[in-house]
Amino acid sequence: MATNAPATNSLFKSVFGALRTLLHLTAAVQFTYGIYYDYKFVEFPAQTDPNSKLIYHPFGGKFKYLTFLNAIIQALYYVISLVNDFVGTNELVPRRAPAIRKFKDWLLSTLAFPVALNVGITFWTLYAIDRELVFPKVLDPVFPSWLNHVLHTNIVVFIVLEMFTSYRAYPTRSKGLTGLAIFMGSYLVWIHIIKHYSNVWVYPVLEVLQLPQRILFFAAVLGFTFALYLLGEFINNVVWAKEVKLSLRKSK
Questions:
Q1: Is 78 exposed, middle or buried (0-12, 13-18, 19+ CB in 10 A)?
Q2: Under 8 Å CB-to-CB from 57, ≥6 apart: which residues?
Q3: What stretches pass through the bilayer (predicted)?
Q4: What is the pTM of this model?
Q5: How many Å apart are CA 24 and CA 196, to the nearest integer?
Q6: Residue 14 has what pLDDT?
Q7: In which element (H, E) is residue 143 found?
Q8: Angle, to 10 degrees, between the axis of helix 113-130 and the axis of helix 173-198?
Q9: Is 49 left (phi over 0), alpha (psi -120 to 50) or beta?
């Protein structure tokens, strides 16, 4: 029995590695196709009632939505993960990690995990409260249900699976939170530029909030996103505790 242990362990690693690559391939294909379909075929309905509040303006296109930007981040992450599966390394604690592995680890830690959970949790929470605040019924004929789940549900499912199937070396907390803060801060500036030039808030929920409420809302979103970064770091430290300790010893 002991002589078969190395062979069994090798077989397990091979099967696990193949499943991980399949996960990356499935995610890369679906998110890339979701981006393509959303950009190419989803057109917001024209305003027919001149007395109704305008909910969409073409300025900024799809790139004004955090959902769309997040889908790009997810697709990029899984494409890079797929490339890393073949030309990089998935060693738990490599002696010298290649550049693509370092970028993969940084991208998940700093953006892919916290932004995906932010989009998924915020969307479905507001949807449960009042869907008109985030996804008005007028969009149902042009925004298929499967695409809604790809962009708002599957992003969370796949990134959580990734946390449990691939170890990554988190950056220092200051560097990780700084990168996330730059991204989220830039997005807040961007949606205010959209509002300035189109006179339409990107999300209907912002239309019903007064200035003090909007400030609190933005502060809560930022705080929530930073908390999600810390959650990802915590999950990584718990699930991959042995690898984290080994990595810390090697860095000394």
A1: buried
A2: 194, 198, 199, 200
A3: 65-86, 106-126, 146-164, 176-195, 215-240
A4: 0.92
A5: 39
A6: 87
A7: none
A8: 50
A9: beta
